[in-house]
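Quick entry, no commentary yet.
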Amino acid sequence: MSAPAAPVAPPPRFTLDPEQQRAHDFLVTHPYGAVWLGVGTGKTLTTLAALQTLRPQHHILVVSTVSIARSTWLNEIARHGFPIRTRSLIVDDRDRKLSTAQRRERIGQVFTDPPTMYFLNQELLTRPASPRCRVCHGHGGTHPGLPCRHCQTGLVDQLPVVEVRGRDGRPHRTRRWPFPTLIIDEAQGFGSPSSRRFQALQLVRPAISRVIELTGTPGTLHDLWSQVYLLDQGQALGRTITAFRQRWFTPRMVHGTTVPASWDPRPGAAEEIHAAIRHLVFSAPRHQPTLPGGPPRVIDHPVRLPPELQQAYRELRRDLVLDVVDQAATRQAEQAYASWLRTSPEAAAIRAELAGLTGDAHAAASARHRAARIHDFVRTPGRSLVTTVLAQNQAVLTGKLLQFASGTLYTGDPDDPRTTGRYEVLHTAKLDAAETLVRRHAGSPVLIVHHFRADRRELLTRFATIGIHAEAFDGSRAMEHRWNARRIPVMLLHPASGGPGLNLQQGGSTMIWYTLPFSLRNYLQTIGRLARRGQLEPVTIYRLIT
């Protein structure tokens, strides 16, 4: 009697639209390919469908942001019934963060596990050596270029080192790479060729036989070199970032610096670069998901401040700018005076006097001469100085103004850790506006996007006071499921940590931007959490603008 047949898993449940089918066919026929489709267009489902067609009989590594690697792929696999064995290198089976020892254990089991799809966030590809390590003392491994496996706990760091014979006929030490297929989701995270994560993948890239890159926001032209390098190892855009820059860019210099502030594309560079990578990229920039009621409706909700607060805001902006520029002008004057004192024949008598003095007498004479002469070297900062100073301190300036507009201002001393996170509440105008909008949508879950921890704390306190249940998103699958089950009336989300990749469209259709971000990518990605396939209601976006 023959043995009973093993149960057959039901086929996956999914349907691709025409654009997704084209992307699927591209991935199936291109071992090294990128899919650039808009936010919410189903790139994860398309990739899983392509893998279902290819049926690789080996490990697959998915590298992405924490939120995507932790939940999005697992949710899509479960929702559509893909017969894929999965394992996370971030959290355990109960969605609890793995300890360093647990992650090391799982990495060691990779070489004996059956074919599995593994998930890892970008930051855990490689870790820097720790100065406190008792083995390497921050210098890395015992061999040049190799990591210290005691303190460098990233995936690439922990892989076994093997010796292979290179093209030059000599033995070379390298890592044993167990993932023939690599999927890089949110590939724009590898836009910097100097980042450790890019260099880690660059090291193992020759051992990978299929690379899939996914993104809806590939970044600037300059960001493309490292992303494309991971596809073809430099064949299309040059084997080094230097060659890429020399061919298509010119450096933009800032007065008083020697390192380019940015690289500007030359005329025609965009067309030439896109033509060079056309065979590696599937792109449909205008392809967006069809949503009920059409594209999201964006409503700017003005927040008015009393005249005295408006005046305080203007004074903060003016005084902070003037203070920054004044400090720069003073530093320039001091540098010019010091140079004059060292080299000018006119200063010979002063140098002779100071040479004969020591201790307090020397310090007093130096201060007297400096006070008498420094005004000769103070000049009104020119346009180049003002531009340089504001560019270098833009984060300080705009950050403080953004805090003021949102209602809280951090007052901690950067040099005193005990004051970290200390802030003062300046006004509650945005809190009042957020409460009004939430009450207006009573019975419908609302997603509030914030920027500062102080704002999150004030929002949670306000909603608790008025009896409306609100929670801050913690990145867990459990909380994502509760939101999509409409069990969280108000959820707070930070655009940088919770924006990309999350499927939140089933939980609500209303978003409030409590604080608008500086990053256009974060803005578009966060809106795409609601405005994506599977959304059944018209999407409304409120932007609170002070």
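second:
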Amino acid sequence: MNDLNLKDKERETADEKTIDAAFQHLLDTYLASRHRKKVDIITKAFNFARQAHKGVRRLSGEPYIMHPIAVAQVACQEMGLGSTSICSALLHDVVEDTDYTVEDIENIFGPKIAHIVDGLTKISGGIFGDRASAQAENFKKLLLTMSDDIRVILIKICDRLHNMRTLASQPANKQYKIAGETLYIYAPLANRLGLNKIKTELEDLSFKYEHPEEYASIRQKLSFTEEQRNKLFNDFTAPIRAALDRMGIQYEIKARIKSPYSIWNKMQTKHVTFDEIYDILAVRIIFVPKVREEEVNECFNIYVAISKIYKSHPDRLRDWLNHPKANGYQALHVTLMSKQGRWIEVQIRSDHMDEVAEQGFAAHWKYKEGGEITEDEGELNDWLRTIKEILDDPQPDAMDFLDAIKLNLFASEIFVFTPKGEIKTMPAGCTALDFAFQIHTFLGSHCIGAKVNHKLVPLSHKLQSGDQVEILTSKSQHVQPSWINFVSTAKAKAKIMAILRRDNREIQKTGEDMLAQWLQENDFETTTSILDKLCELHELPKHEDLFQAIGDRTINLGDRDLDAISGKKEKDSSISWRKFVPFLHDKKPEKAEQDKSELIVVGKEFNKKKPVIINEETISHYKFSDCCHPIPGDDILGYIDNKNQIEIHKRACPVASKLKSSFGNRILDAKWDMHRKLFFDATIELRGIDRMGMLLDVSKVISQQLDVNIHKITVSSDEGIFDGAIEIKIHDRDDVKIIIDNLKKIDGIQEIQRIM
């Protein structure tokens, strides 16, 4: 017993030392910054949190207080935030995990810190129904709170970054949920706030847990090619250094290596191998301007000097100096041809621009008095205003809400001019109608067309950077349901949906009144039973749909409806004949019953932490999604659907991304244990230069060399270019890889990929 007590005491002493060292490191980092030195309040917050979390440990076994200290360290060191944020980070879990209230925090630390802690608690907590999308609701709260104080979202990102760094201690199903959520919500948010370094780390950590083998493979390839990259970098930058030295510029040249996630993403979207990615290396020139006000001109002077050494690519000059990105990013990007025949991107930026690029909006207020945020971050406030407008109109589906926000988070920008020459920042891919809604809802809802660069164009016309746009309106114009198909901004989508819903409510009210009047004329009263019979007759799922159809005249009430209500003929004539046709009546339900009996139904005893193992015996117990067609060898996960049955998805599937970020508590780890007995469908797409005998060569490789069964083949040729799709029967992913590797050797094939 004494030995146990002794061990506990030793562990406690070791913990105390670790905690003290971590807090001292935080204080040292804070004291080295340019913020006012409010050490007392930070120490007070630390002691309060330490006491509140005393005796509690994380899953990894370390004392819980180490997490708030780590979050505060990220806020201080990596975002450059001040004492208010550091205190809020230290206290961020106190209200949620202990008996202390927001009022207690306010009494001890003041209203500002209490407000931020309250915001962070709201995001984490909350009680939602089983069917509600908890994450989307959390995200909604996050954005609502962030509209009041941006520090709430910044600390939440710090919290998420530390959780991702310590994700190894979580079970696999939790890892997929948290990683999916991070990629879907937090990485784009970090990107939008200009936190480039943090965004990259969040993406890489998510990738590492979702696709461990592919992550390890890319890391290994990066280390193998490091030596030749270093040589390329040194050879390329030597003449640039000499030119900058002659100009008397104080500078630093860095190599920027593409992150594993960016490389993998490019491999997926462009369907190329690691060796075919040429922009793994980029060069950054960071200089200290001689005159701070002249830093933009000095960027261009450097560009002129280096373009005398190397030939620049005319279409790849990106001027983010005069028109910074919406997240504050400023730089001049130019692509130069190296002596080795490789295009290399060079990013030219001042030291201050570099700080903004790495730390985003945090760098803007970093040097302000006391490090407090002022309200002059124009671009950021515009963005928050857009989000607030979307939040003000409640959307029925949380997933739609996430998608709408995500559209705006990910979008890269273009610059569009009004007729008066004012510049507006819009997401790339937006249409004239998006622009109309961006300026004003009235303009959007009455828009009939636009003049782009003085030429008449339709609403769906996609805008390019530099376009001058004049919106044309008419009072007789009304919002059309088809508009939703070609707008791309979250604001326009939200406004169109809101107007359509309002119009629909009016049509439904008209339809309801028309139905009531018609029933009255035929001596009936409006009852649920009658409405159900009419819905069944017209194959409509809800009463609202029936009112809508009557209101917009797609249903004209008549004798058929009377027969259905009174239970006459209709049943005898047009419905009951189906039961005499065997293939319409008897067989299908039987098969459905059989399928249902094989599928596993998840009960209360089901252990969500254990992986689902898929082998030849158990494969029929699970549903396989049409959205991504997983085959053995793919990284997969399970999802418990609304019927408590398990769907299997690829982890990289877009549907799975939404499920991870919105229904994380229903995600399961899933693993293959197949023995190459069963066959699966896979589709391979080919593209290349057409020639005589191309199809013969392709079928020879698949059927004769590899002895694979071709299920279906479709090929079309246009002006010497052919496109083809081959459906094959294979055992697993390795089979597909072998087939693709062999097909690549055929003369004329340019692009080849397996499609989902």
